[in-house]
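Help needed: design a sequence for this.
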């Protein structure tokens, strides 16, 4: 019975974890915006949620690109991407599409990253509000109000 009440919260909880991880990846891109040769990364939210809901394992540690390392760095000077997802276990980060070629080979577009960061933050907040509202509804039903 209780599982039926909380099944919607399970979906939103997983969405919250994936959004938090995406926010961390976007922040890493912004931190490496001036690093020569850095390739921007991003999470495909739809694929990550499918993996999380389907029981597939999901790790957001990137596969080593050509000339890269398994630590998530394409160069020793890059800040590493280390996933904080412990409940989800296997998957990959995608490389962002370079919209403006840079002389130093960096693919981070700060305008796009700022927009992605703000958009993801708003969606994260909306997910939190949904969870909060659902929790209040369940609590109200339990208390009989």
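Sure. Designed sequence:
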């Amino acid at each position: 019975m209780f599982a039926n009440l909380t099944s919607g919260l399970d979906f939103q909880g997983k969405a919250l974890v994936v959004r938090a991880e995406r926010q961390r990846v976007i922040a890493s891109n912004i931190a490496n915006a001036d690093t020569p040769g850095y390739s921007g990364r991003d999470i495909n939210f739809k694929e990550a949620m499918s993996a999380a809901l389907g029981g597939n394992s999901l790790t957001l540690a990137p596969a080593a690109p050509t000339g890269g390392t398994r630590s998530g760095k394409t160069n020793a000077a890059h800040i590493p991407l280390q996933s904080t997802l412990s409940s989800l276990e296997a998957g990959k980060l995608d490389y962002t599409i370079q919209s403006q070629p840079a002389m130093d080979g960096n693919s981070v577009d700060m305008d796009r990253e700022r927009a992605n960061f703000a958009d993801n933050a708003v969606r994260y907040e909306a997910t939190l509000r949904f969870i909060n509202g659902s929790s209040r509804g369940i609590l109200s039903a339990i208390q009989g109000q």
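The mean pLDDT is 78.
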